[in-house]
Every structure is written in structure tokens, then in C-alpha cells.
Amino acid sequence: xxxxxxxxxxxxxxxxxxxxxxxxxxxxxxxxxxxxxxxxxxxxxxxxxxxxxxxxxxxxxxxxxxxxxxxxxxxxxxxxxxxxxxxxxxxxxxxxxxxxxxxxxxxxxxxxxxxxxxxxxxxxxxxxxxxxxxxxxxxxxxxxxxxxxxxxxxxxxxxxxxxxxxxxxxxxxxxxxxxxxxxxxxxxxxxxxxxxxxxxxxxxxxxxxxxxxxxxxxxxxxxxxxxxxxxxxxxxxxxxxxxxxxxxxxxxxxxxxxxxxxxxxxxxxxxxxxxxxxxxxxxxxxxxxxxxxxxxxxxxxxxxxxxxxxxxxxxxxxxxxxxxxxxxxxxxxxxxxx
Length: 338
What we know:
With 338 residues, the chain is α/β, with parallel strands linked by helices. It contains 13 helices and 12 strands. The chain has 2 domains: 204 residues, inorganic pyrophosphatase (n-terminal core) (Alpha-Beta Complex), CATH 3.90.1640; 120 residues, Diaminopimelate Epimerase, Chain A, domain 1 (Roll).
């Protein structure tokens, strides 16, 4: 669902004079959510707009290197300020999510707002709550779409190092360092940003080489003591218990990326990382090739995402969710003789 020339002209007209603009992204923001939001903020500020980024919840500490991230308003920490920013906005950008329930309580306020709403996202089936929808499921990331959005507006000369670093962060994280969800345009965007002087080596180092000792020990525990391999279905599971959360004092961001280690095993095509939290069990699902974990998450775990990278959650016991995952494997992976 691309923007038409008429819609691009209308958005240009909306942005022609300084506005109060609020940028929203999803709960538990990842590199793409943060990168796209900050890149758009920096871009809008070049035209004297007052742009504020609102995050439903806190961001992982490894993204602390991003310029301007400390100025983001976190709803969980400052509800009144976040709500005021939405209510006073003349324009609301919704980035990297396709339904208002992804921003929790803020969704109702956005729905009731008279502000012009612009959705830019790459997930399946966007809800029609925005005035303008720029949605492309073939895109690697929302950062890729923000780059295209800036070009569509005819303002590519405004992409500087700050915007470029934010955009490249989303490219790196949502593609797993260009291992999946890529297309020809993804590499064209990366090339364009490199030509503008972006240091992708330092970005990779900031994103992936900032583990704490606790995180490394947790990873070792997860792989040594909590991983189960199901070779006949080319599957692997890591399940963390409430006790694991207490023993390792697990906080937001500490488990980031653990699911990807399962797919490093030769022959594994589908991976589930399942976490037992105080009131809910959460899942991260990854796959290779034609196996759609997006369909699995949507049908069985109240979730969604991308074909090869999705997530979900359920109010159930940890062992019940593990059992459910195993039970539905035959619907998604052909059994093989081992």
C-alpha cells in the first residue's frame, strides 16, 4: 500500500509549515522502531517542526548510543507527558506497528485525536485507522521505508549522519545484520547511507558487542540448561522460567537475541524462545525458508510479525505453551526420519 502522488502532495502540504508532531512506535521498541522514529524526528526538525518521540515502554540499553534517544518520552515512566504530547499533536506518525493495540492505552487517545495520522510500517494487514498509510511488507524494515519516504518528498539532501545512523540501525537489527528479510532495495539504501559517511562497523559494535557479564552468563545457562532440540521437526526451544528471571535478575533487553542462537544449529529451521513472566508467557519465533512463524503466531499465540520472525503471548502455564508449540509443529514443518 504505497503512497500515491496525490497523497505525497497532500503530506507535503501538511508539512509545509511548522507543526506540533508526535511520533509513536510500539511497546518494547527494537532497533527498527527506535531508528525509524529518531530518523523521522531529526528530518522533521530540519523544517522547524516540533517533533516528539513517544515510546510505550523503555528501550534496551544497548541502543543508548543513538543520538537523541534520551529525549524520547516513555509512557510507562511519564504517562501524563506522553498523553499530553498526543493530545496536542497536529500530526501523528505511527511507525513500525499496524494496529493501535500495539501502543497500549495510547491507542484510544490516538483514535480519538483530530490530528492528521500517517502510518509507515512493514507488517501484514495494517488497520485502517490512519489518514495516510505507507505499508510495504516486502521492505526489510520501517527504516527502509522512512528512507523511501524522505526520497518521495524530494528531500533526500536532508539525510545527514544523525538520520543515517538511525536508519542504518534499523536495517541492521531487522535483517539480523543482512541475513534475512532483505531485498534489492535494502542494499541500495545501505549503499546510499554508506556513501553519506555512515560507519556501519561502529554501529554493529555498539549494537552487538555491549553484553554485560550477566547477559553472557544468562545466554550460557539458556543454551546449556534450557534448550531442547526436536530433530525430527528441525526445531529447537529455549524456555526460561520465573525462577530463571529471579536467579539472573533479568531485566528488559537482557534476553534480546537469544532466540537467534537456536537457528545457528545445523539442520534447525524453526526456533521458539519462550519466557515465563509474572502474569503472561511470551514467545519469540524464528524460522528459515518457507516456514511461516507469522502464521503460527497469529493462529496460536495471539501474535504476529513477519514470515520468518514473529512473536506472541498467552495467559497460560509455561509447560502448556511449550506443549502447544510442539503439538502444532507438524502443521508447519514436515517430519523427517532421524
